[in-house]
Design brief:
This protein has about 350 residues and is α/β, with parallel strands linked by helices. It is about 40% helix and about 25% strand. Helix 1 (about 5-35) crosses helix 3 (about 65-80), helix 2 packs antiparallel against helix 3 and helix 11 packs antiparallel against helix 12 (about 325-340).
Amino acid sequence: MSDELLNLRNRIDSLDEEILARLSERATCAQRVGEIKHGNIYRPEREAQVLRRLADINPGPLPGGAVQRIFREIMSACLALEQPLKVAYLGPAGTFSESASRKHFGSAPNFLPMAAIDDVFRTVEQGNADYGVVPVENSTEGAVGGTLDLLLANPLKVCGEVKLRIHQHLLSRAEGIGGAKRLYSHAQSLAQCHEWLNRHLANLPRIPVASNAEAARLAAEDPESCAIAGEAAAELYGLNKLASNIEDDPNNSTRFLVIAHHEAGPSGKDKTSVVCSAPNRPGAMYALLEPLARHGVDMTKLQSRPARGGLWEYVFYVDLQGHQTDADVAVALKELGERAAFVKVLGSYPVAAI
């Protein structure tokens, strides 16, 4: 071993000891914060601010995203010193919803897989989980209607968002596709890979199942089948990756919302989600949106959804830039409330930091 290599390894050992000492000091500070705040030290706006700041001041050579992921795990572990968070998500284990949950909260919480989206809402509402993570829209397939309906009907608040790149893989126990007789996947994933499947597996029967993780489980039990699922499901069920990134849209991504009993404070880079309905008269929609434009509030999404209360009646889901306590957003929302037949602020929350 050269003297230079030996010196570098000794320096790395010394730095590791310094890092460990600083981590212990940080964890002690986090414990003290928990004592002062009586255990409730998770604040989504504070964590978003920390992650953004670290990316901004990162000197390299580690990329900003890597630094954020490292500190996401540090914060997750420090939070768990008091009491691990309980996070409900659309299961089973190995779904993209689980990957989104771990991306947002780190690996320290107790993750609770739920059979359906309404079970996620119910578990959080009843206090059996601190937070829930639910899909709300996909860049290819659009909005998740069930989530939108539950946001309207449920008293829980949106306190965070997660954006997850969706990479679909063709998985199987077999080493090749030659002997496959059936393909399992969730209906949305089949749609997201429609063109690839038509080119490469046009004659293979496609069987929709409840989730991609369920598809992977079935493929693990049946050597004559294959599945479309993500990396987590492949690892969980020990499947071979026969083809990678087979989604038709290379930018395919899903947006998830974090729900809880509390709202998030302003972080400096926020969104506010609102659902409203317009009176059934000419110009009503313009009247709803005009205050946003006049007060300079940027509307980033407008989604209509049939209302359950009557035939051909609709509610509108709107995402705005800014926090509801920001002066321009607050006055625009006040005027919106005066003009709309119904308004509900679903929550203000930090824009996804990672």
